[in-house]
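Support request, priority: normal
Reporter: lab tech (M.K.)
Component: structure prediction queue

Hi team, I submitted a job for FAD-binding protein from Pannonibacter tanglangensis yesterday, and the status page still shows it as pending. I've pasted the exact input below so you can check whether something in the sequence is tripping the parser. The sequence length should be 498 residues. Please let me know if I need to resubmit or if it's stuck on your end.
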Amino acid sequence: MVGIAMPAPDRGVLARRDEIVAALKAIVPGEGVIDALTEMRPYETDALTAYRQMPLVVVLPETVDQVSRILRYCYENEVKVVPRGAGTSLSGGALPLADGVLMSMMKFNRILDIDFPNRAVIAQPGVTNLGITRAVEHEGFYYAPDPSSQIACSIGGNIAENSGGVHCLKYGLTTNNVLGLEMVLITGEVIRLGGKHMEAEGYDLLALMTGSEGLLGVVTEVTVRILQKPETARAALVGFPTSEDGGRCVADIIAAGIIPGGMEMMDGPAIQAAEDYVNAGYPRDAEALLIVELDGPEAEVDFLLARVEEIARANRAGYLRVSTSEEERLVFWAGRKSAFPAVGRISPDYLCMDGTIPRRELPRVLAGMRELSVKHGLRCANVFHAGDGNLHPLILYDANKPGELEAAEAFGADILRLCVAVGGVLTGEHGVGIEKRDLMPEMFSEDDLKQQQRVKCAFDDKHLLNPGKVFPVLHRCADLGMMHVHKGQLAFPDIPRF
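Reply from support: The job had stalled in the queue. We restarted it manually and it finished. Here are the results:
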């Protein structure tokens, strides 16, 4: 692996491989354990394909009891575990460990309950994101979070990364659409959080689990809310002469009190790639393209589209086209949804970054990325969730050319530093994983990171779940639990201690 250091394998665990494999086969009989090198090859990486590592062994449980027994065995024998969904993570969150069990949850692939009166679906974690919508669309319902990988990504993986999508501006990320979870702790204990009801008593552990990247537990069941499809949905394609004009238009639309169902932006290189791939009718002479979708009652949609057009014209829009049918609206989105594979046709490799900034900083950050492109000598295509400031720069490189991967990583790190510098954050939906792990100190102080690790210690005191991810330095739980004395003085000395 280039540029990323992972924990050194435990030689004692490696020496016990045959024993561990035999124990797992006793728990998951038949074809539930994969230990042959060639058969484990598909699991050596996730969608961050620049990094690869063969796992110790792969296990595919089918029941909650099997998950519980596997985790209990690993806890008692101090064997690391990496949970994995569909493997579409773009941050290396599912990268295996040489001395760790890779637990694939893709045999948990059934929808267990559809409750239209309560507008809820209970699904196993291996069900695809799009699969939930397909199961309820005959009654006019859908599941709102819709990442571009929704045809493949699993709902369990969406929980791990708090995935977003083009319609999350109005309807929220995964965390806003999950009602309940069943999960198994590293000790094998099975717990439930939330349910079909909107609020749960006690601490909001449901929100804590959403976006926890496999560090706190393994999800075995998910309850999500479904929404009724709006009466009307229409999309507008708006072309601008510069990305700065498009960025200002985004901020002005939100400032006007308009919350579109979705608002996406693409720059010149992404427009050309998507149009070559999909033929969606995008304006090739535009340097920036907004897709703005309004939904709701027809009269409201018509009124808001007129307001959006006014705002776009005030920001020098040179092209504006509004969908006139549902088929045309879907074609507009097809180009954006296919942007990642489309860019793959113009570059042998690319890194898909993920940072979030305040909307008002879009023009400044886009200009900064152009300067960074020159600095690092690499091209960059931009597609992003403009409405909530979630950027997805695609850094183009050729892994076969010496030094280009390292340059791409340095380019990406500089983009994320820029996001933090303007008041943004390191990730919007892809998670930290290994990709942004070593950049965490750019955003968090050492005390911040230690406090986050205390949460992990509460769930995983031996650091066996997905170690090497998220935290650049992982402290022992015993060290984190010690009372901190600085220059002979306790923190907050006036607080009574018992």
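The domain at 347-439 is CATH 3.30.70.2740 (Alpha-Beta Plaits). The chain has a mean pLDDT of 93. Let us know if anything else looks off. Ticket resolved.
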